[in-house]
Write a structure and sequence with these properties.
Elements (H helix, E strand, L loop, with lengths): L4 E7 L3 H12 L4 E5 L22 H13 L4 E14 L2 E8 L6 E10 L3 E4 L6 H4 L4 E2 L2 H4 L8 E5 L4 H8 L6 E4 L8 H9 L3 E3 L3 E7 L2 E7 L4 E3 L2 E5 L1 E4 L30 E3 L11 H20 L11
Parallel strand pairs: 1-2, 1-5, 2-3, 5-16, 7-14, 8-9, 8-14, 9-10
Antiparallel strand pairs: 3-4, 4-5, 6-15, 11-12, 12-13
Helix pairs in contact: 1-2, 1-7
GO molecular function, one term: thioredoxin-disulfide reductase (NADPH) activity
Keywords: Flavoprotein, Oxidoreductase
Catalytic activity: [thioredoxin]-dithiol + NADP(+) = [thioredoxin]-disulfide + NADPH + H(+)
Length: about 325
């Protein structure tokens, strides 16, 4: 595949990237999707809230999306991890290392769509991964319905725990927020939560407890075990964007790429979509919809219509 040329290279094979790619191949663009095949939601058994696919396994949704793109002669998907994207003449050079036995690639494109999402760092609890995706989740809108009315934990070390706790009260009136001695909840927010019956536990956590793979509680470092049947964790999310560092794209204070409303970044010809952009992690169906919006912008720009190019970057 060395030295091959594409009109668009889409980096990332999640709902945002595959939706962009599908709409672009239908616009008769020659498109390559480069997918590292390391999705953030790999541990999630079922994806909820995706119209006509409610309850589909996320990995199955990705597989179906790849098949959709490759059902068109001008669409191609490869498993590779992008190492760099550089300016090359009037376009871009994309270099990637093959994964799962795939060949390395070195291709050029007129436009690049960045849809690599984020990596996530969990609170350092030894057993947290054993329950993540089954009893513990990170997306409240996606998974709270299945946890309704159960005794829940919200575990995190960030300063937005109060907001997430308030949202969770829509589904359960038995909620404890565990800050692990790190997360910040202001006094006014704690009083608001208390009026709703939400308790804040600031003692450090030793680990989670469970039996036969089922979460039963949260064990604190002083030995106290607080019974819980499930809940939510607030990871620290970091945009996966090292491969575009040489392009000097504008980003916000958290590292997310800034774009206009159609996904155009500060470098003409480079677009960003999905969790790569503010506010970061989002429902799969939201990411897929955003992919279609960006695809329309890419196609129009390649034609030369340039609608919205003078719009300010958000």
């Amino acid at each position: 595949m060395s030295s091959e040329s594409y009109e668009v290279v889409v980096i990332g094979g999640g709902p945002a990237g595959l939706s962009a790619a599908l709409n672009l191949v239908r616009a008769r663009r020659r498109v390559l999707v480069v997918d590292s095949n390391r999705p953030r939601h790999a541990a999630t058994l079922l994806a909820k809230g995706f119209l006509t696919r409610d309850g589909v396994p996320p990995l199955e949704l990705r597989r179906l999306g790849r098949e959709d793109v490759e059902s068109y002669d001008n669409g191609e998907v490869v498993f590779a991890e992008v190492r760099s994207v550089e300016l090359s003449g009037s376009g871009f050079r994309v270099v990637a290392s093959g994964v799962r036995g795939a060949a390395d690639i070195d291709v050029v494109a007129q436009a690049v769509v960045v849809a690599t999402g984020v990596t996530e760092t969990m609170p350092a609890l030894p057993s947290i991964r054993a329950y993540y995706g089954t009893q513990l989740h990170s997306c409240i809108e996606c998974d709270a319905f299945e946890k309704a009315d159960a005794p829940l934990a919200l575990i995190g070390e960030t300063d937005d725990l109060a907001e997430r706790a308030l949202l969770l009260t829509q589904w359960s009136d038995d909620l404890i927020v565990f800050t692990n001695g790190v997360g910040v909840i202001a006094d006014d927010d704690e009083r608001t939560l208390a009026r709703l019956g939400v308790r804040v536990e600031r003692r450090p956590i030793d680990d989670l407890t469970g039996e036969r793979g089922v979460l039963t509680g949260v064990r604190l470092t002083d030995g106290t075990v607080i019974e819980r049947e499930g809940g939510f964790v607030r990871p620290v999310w970091t945009p996966a964007l090292r491969f575009v560092e040489g392009l000097d794209l504008d980003s916000d204070d958290d590292g997310y790429l800034l774009t206009d409303a159609q996904g155009r970044t500060s470098v003409p010809g480079v677009y960003a979509v999905g969790e790569t952009t503010p506010p970061g992690p989002q429902q799969l169906i939201v990411a897929a919809g955003a992919g279609a919006v960006v695809a329309a912008a890419v196609n129009r720009d390649l034609i030369g219509l340039s609608v919205g190019l003078d719009a300010p970057v958000l």
